[in-house]
């Protein structure tokens, strides 16, 4: 069986080597285990301290070969997508362009097996659109990454970003929405990161997606493709509460209508969570994902099999949906 893993992370070394040369924050240092330690802000704890498994694409692809399936992968930026909007506008542009060039190079090295999405800096709307168009039109990337916020203060529903969403919709590409570890740090800190990793990222991505709904962005852009990570965060479970209590936003339709227009993956260490995501979004809106190297692809596949879907629905989620939703095409 051929599988598309829609939630796969590879981070280029060149970007982090450049970060190691920065004297101000955000910055990085080599950590002696083949990876890097990364700080967003001065005086804060390190945001990432990751080993070689995040940066060695050849070893990552070799690991996929051990699963007993033909596995194709879709690279998304994940929690690092906020970084490009933490930088001054022109530096953010340069860093995103470097990232996107590396992603395009990976696509060329693994044609028909790896597809990659673009980093986009959002602090300047004009630059964001220029970087987006270069990534899609010139480099041939298949989508873009949407951080949960713009820096620590501005949000992704800012009115000035409307032209950016206009252009994304026109291009017909997906936006991968992933938690970025910047929302509510004051109440989600502690326990050696256990609170944030177990619950904080669910809150992070859910609030960001709610902003896209309640702001009317999803209403004004009916063809916008939002790919929610981690089985939709808390949204499927709390959709009824949103419909009951979000009338003040003045939307013409219940919020759950817009949530169900989004797409999601199967990244959940909980068989019941995967099943509910399929029931809520519908089988046509769910794609298999492993969140590798955050999680074991073998475990992700085992849990997915335990959901007990029909062979037809399994084929849709494991392969067909990603190719259709994300517009994946084999090279000519």
Rounded radius of gyration (Å): 19 Å
Q: Given the helix and strand composition, which structural class is it?
A: alpha/beta
The fraction of residues in strands falls at 15-25%
Strand order of the largest sheet: 1-5-6-7-10-11-12-13
Average pLDDT reading: 94
Domain module count: 1
Q: Identify the overall geometry.
A: globular
Query: Which CATH class applies here?
Result: Alpha Beta
How would you characterize this protein structure?
By secondary structure, the chain is an alpha/beta fold. The chain has a single domain (2-325), classed as Metal-dependent hydrolases (TIM Barrel, Alpha-Beta Barrel). The protein is 44% helix and 15% strand. The chain is built from 14 helices and 13 strands. It has helices spanning 13-20, 57-64, 83-86, 89-109, 125-138, 162-171, 185-188, 194-214, 217-220, 235-245, 255-259, 271-281, 297-306, 311-325; strands at residues 2-8, 27-30, 36-39, 48-50, 70-75, 114-118, 143-146, 149-150, 154-155, 174-177, 225-228, 263-265, 286-287. The strands form three sheets. Strands 1-5-6-7-10-11-12-13 form an eight-stranded parallel beta sheet. The protein has a three-stranded antiparallel beta sheet with strand order 2-3-4.
